[in-house]
Amino acid sequence: MGGAVVLIVVVAAVIIALMVMGTYNGLVRLRNAVKNAWSQIDVQLKRRHDLIPNLVETAKGYMKHERETLEAVVKARNLAASARESGNVANSASAESQLSGAMANLFVVVERYPDLKANQNFLSLQEELTSTENKVSFARQFYNDSVMNFNNKIEMFPSNIVAGMFKFKAADFFEITEAAQREAPKVSFS
What we know:
Layout: H1 2-60, H2 67-86, H3 89-110, H4 114-118, H5 120-155, H6 159-165, H7 179-182
Helix pairs in contact: 1-2, 1-5, 2-3
């Protein structure tokens, strides 16, 4: 009878160890998916940041009286690039939000310059930037989905026990933090 108890304890210990190992490996897989998703955002943001100086240079020749707008775009781009390099999701999201606002202002101002709007180089850069913006949006969505899956696994029983034992921390979502960026732009033809 004593041998049967030992066997049951050993089998139970093996089952628990296998469960812990499987849960740990699942958490690692999800954490790596979050890192991969962030890398995809990073690639698209770098592409965005690389396009902006060319767009600004093209616009400079036409927009002599809009120096403040162009400087705001360059400043926001530099801030976003350094935030991206830091790897901090919250800082990067905030800086990208500011850059989006500066770019929106630039495109509003561009409407006053028909020659610039007709410039093929500017149109090409604008199209590339629009395409990149779409890719950034998809990458953000994929990243946030990966973060949600990872955070759910960390918080749900019984994987939360293993997550706590191995100090897994919840990942940050890529969120728009400024209320003005959440609002739809106002368009007026008056």
